[in-house]
Amino acid sequence: MINTTEGFTLVRTFDATREEIWTAWTDPDSVAKWWHPRGTSTPRETVDIDARVGGRYTYAMVNDATGEKVVTGGTYLTVDPFERLAFTWGNPDDDPDDSPVVTVTLEPVADGTRMTFELRGVTGAKGDGYFYDGWDATLDSLSEHLGGPAA
């Protein structure tokens, strides 16, 4: 089992609807456009999503300079459209009970949608955590995909 006491939370407010953000997380064409930090890309042909409880997903990030590819995947644990999405995150062949868990919660607010991103089961804090920094930069890509500036 993973240590769920370790992890971090990132909160962003987007000038977008919950539906637009949900689509960005669950539609393979959208995922390919943003699910990577700068300097990497996610080729559309590497993205496979079955966004239902028990469904699986995979995608690959490719380092634009070196061509090195990292394949990531997991299993959907919670799928509450436009509100909450939870999934394991790691090597696609890992046991879900031994994988970190991402939870994305969407809440309407006056200026758009507040998205709370929580990753449990990894260490890392702002500036010193590989996972924190990678996800922070990836959420910048999501903001740009949704038509806003990198936050």
UniProtKB/TrEMBL annotation:
It comes from the Bacteria. InterPro entries: ASHA1/2-like_C (IPR013538), START-like_dom_sf (IPR023393). Residues 15-146 form the Activator of Hsp90 ATPase homologue 1/2-like C-terminal domain. Belongs to the AHA1 family. This is Uncharacterized protein YndB with AHSA1/START domain. It comes from Spelaeicoccus albus.
